[in-house]
């Protein structure tokens, strides 16, 4: 009898322990929203990637601080430090930890529940939401880009280009958990577009006699290059012509920018033809390059082209 009671209470205690171990965290919204660094305790790799990503700097970037008049413009903060992912009109500012910008909780926490692409048992309540694998989940905050994407008929989702999946562990919680949890397909949370850019942009040229014809192509299928409507994102197409002695005889800059709304549409090519005043019989070197510029960040070159023109008519 005593033994049976012991086993009985033992079982109850054990199940209590299991439940407690199951949900170490009750994740709530509003003032109780946790910092992203809380997620770092278990999701170390994802946290590290997000820390390098633009979403984590959405509130603290100098450009945003300046443009929002030192955070006075509340309508801007509701998307740069949002409580949760929603339609553009329903975004609300997170009352705490604004420095986290577009935080883990902005995209994953809703109704005191963590949503994600899987059906699984986590250390916190979690539920599956298939929209995490669809472009629609980026639409509320990226309205113009989402519209361009729809119009482009792209077969790839935003995630397939920007969050490529690799098979790895979802959590890094030590040796024991690495034995019991299987690997899954995990999307990279550093939505880097530098490499995407280099793959997407192409310059081609045709040097004629006394003229040069240059084309820039957006080979990616997703949206305009550049895309967006909030920041000042520019691509500068710079061309320079030098004679054999190294003297510059011609320079020209063409700017594609989100402010001018003249981004190059997906799979489209823009062509420029420049007449160059040259001396017959002489040879000239042409160099064209495309540079990506966003205020307050280091610029980088995405493509370049070299050619030669012969003077003449
Ligand atoms: C809750 C709002 C929100 C959601 C949801 C969201 N974003 Fe963003 N995103 C932003 C904000 C705000 C920025 C601007 C960050 C900054 O200030 O640099 C941004 C920046 C970016 C950038 C970098 C642009 C740059 O400044 O270099 C990329 C790429 C991007 N988002 C892709 C995505 C994709 C893909 C998704 C869907 C998986 C997504 N975003 C979902 C709000 C959001
Ligand atoms: C104490 C550890 C721990 C902490 C802290 C933690 N998680 Fe998790 N999380 C897990 C485990 C375990 C899983 C399941 C992993 C698996 O099955 O491969 C998981 C799964 C997830 C999933 C996938 C859910 C799904 O249904 O697809 C998301 C999203 C997630 N966590 C987000 C977060 C966010 C956001 C935070 C911070 C607010 C956080 N987690 C904090 C342990 C943790
Ligand atoms: C801009 C929105 C956004 C932010 C911010 C964000 N995530 Fe995610 N998260 C996603 C999307 C979209 C997926 C689905 C990616 C996939 O599997 O293709 C995802 C997937 C996950 C998963 C499941 C594994 C996977 O990749 O499918 C975990 C765990 C997770 N996120 C944790 C986090 C943590 C922790 C943070 C903060 C350090 C964070 N996320 C920040 C949008 C976001
Ligand atoms: C076919 C691949 C592809 C798809 C699909 C795609 N993107 Fe991009 N994205 C790129 C490339 C390439 C760049 C860099 C060149 C450029 O600006 O277009 C980029 C850049 C960006 C930028 C940075 C701003 C800029 O133009 O430099 C944002 C923000 C962005 N993408 C958001 C999204 C969102 C949101 C979706 C889904 C609605 C999406 N992308 C779908 C390839 C893609
Ligand atoms: C609905 C969401 C949303 C709202 C509202 C919003 N932004 Fe943004 N912001 C973005 C996204 C997304 C990007 C990334 C580029 C793009 O798509 O325009 C961005 C990028 C930026 C950038 C350039 C990136 C950086 O931080 O260096 C600045 C500056 C900026 N926004 C300022 C503002 C200001 C000022 C307002 C208010 C007038 C505002 N934003 C309102 C979503 C938003």
Quick structural summary:
The protein is built from eleven helices and twelve strands.
Task: Describe the protein in words.
The chain has 313 residues and is α+β, with helices and mostly antiparallel strands. It folds into two domains: 27-187, no CATH class; 194-310, Immunoglobulin-like, CATH 2.60.40. The protein contains eleven helices and twelve strands. The protein has helices at 2-22, 36-39, 44-52, 62-67, 74-80, 104-108, 136-139, 143-152, 158-162, 175-180, 194-200, and strands at 109-110, 113-116, 126-128, 165-168, 184-187, 201-207, 211-218, 233-243, 248-257, 269-275, 283-294, 300-310. The strands form four sheets. Strands 9-8-11-12 form a four-stranded antiparallel β-sheet. The chain is elongated. The N and C termini lie far apart (110 Å). Mean pLDDT is 91; it is low at 13-20. The structure holds heme C (5 copies). One heme C binds at residues 61, 63-64, 67-68, 73, 75-76, 79-80, 88, 91, 141-142, 145, 228-231, 296. One heme C (HEC) is lined by residues 135, 138, 142, 145-146, 149, 154, 156, 158, 161-162, 193, 196-197, 200, 220-223, 225-228, 233.
Give the proportion of residues in helices. 25-40%
**% residues in beta strands:** 25-35%
Helix run count: 11
Structural class: alpha+beta
Count of the domains:
2
From N to C, what is the helix and strand string? HHHHHHEEEHHHEHEHEEEEEEE
The backbone outline, from C-alpha atoms, is elongated
Rg, Å, rounded: 26 Å
What is the spatial order of strands in the main beta sheet?
9-8-11-12
pLDDT < 50 stretches: 13-20
Biggest sheet overview: 4 strands, antiparallel
Bound molecules: heme C
Distance between the termini: 110 Å
Number of strands: 12
- Average pLDDT works out at 91
